[in-house]
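Hey all, quick one. A colleague (J.T.) asked me to put the zinc ion job into the tracker so the inputs and the structure tokens live in one place instead of scattered across chat threads. No bug as far as I know, just bookkeeping. Sequence used:
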Amino acid sequence: MRRPVMQIDILPVFDDNYVYLLFDPDTGTSGVVDPGAAEPVLARLRDLGRGLDWILLTHHHADHSGGIPVLRRETGARVILAKKDVERVPGIDIALDIEVGEGDRVEFGDREFRVLETPGHTRGHVAFWFPGEAALFCGDTLFSLGCGRLFEGTAEQMWASLSKLAALPPETRVYCGHEYTLSNGRFALTVDPDNPRLRARMEEVERLRREGLPTIPTTIGLELETNPFLRPFDPAIRRALGMETASDVEVFAELRRRKDGFRG
Ligand SMILES: [Zn+2]
């Protein structure tokens, strides 16, 4: 008999954040990724009749971590977070919580995920990859058709982090921290206007958003075809920027700089 897949529920909070609820039906293990707010998570858990075992945190920003103190108090869940973020997240108990870094393998029920350090948006940012589920939770590093802003890291660091994610199997489903796909795509079309896969994806994204539906998950394969931040080596993008002879990092940095100033 085929093993049931891990359930992943998408919970929109605030204007455009996504919180993800994880459930392993084999063991009843329950988790949440980046709970910026506690109340919507508690309400959904009540509806599902579930407790909460684990809180997975990609980075310290309040719109991802703000729900942690209340969730801990109400459910007893333990936090899995980057070693580098322990000092920056309120209410972490180093006796109970799990600090992780690059390459760590962590059990979730009888499944397993791996920790990938992805600095750039913040210096402590991590992503969680479930190889057996073909699922990636990457916070504010890779977005559908875009990437996170460089608040604490350099373009070199972010390009290295994105390259690491881009090397995951193409079927990997990407669950990112925000619903930014429509505005990211409008920017992407300014630097990659003749990409037929990008145009087709934008038609789908516009339809999904009109219907009030998430554009998430995307996949690594789809992002490789459509996301300009994963393709600074692409001759068409380089031509659009007038940077045919620049390095990949230079092209990536210019894309990020233009996106920062883009009002689409
Ligand atoms: Zn953030």
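Adding what we noticed when we looked at it: The chain has one domain: 7-260. The first strand starts at residue 7 and ends at 13.
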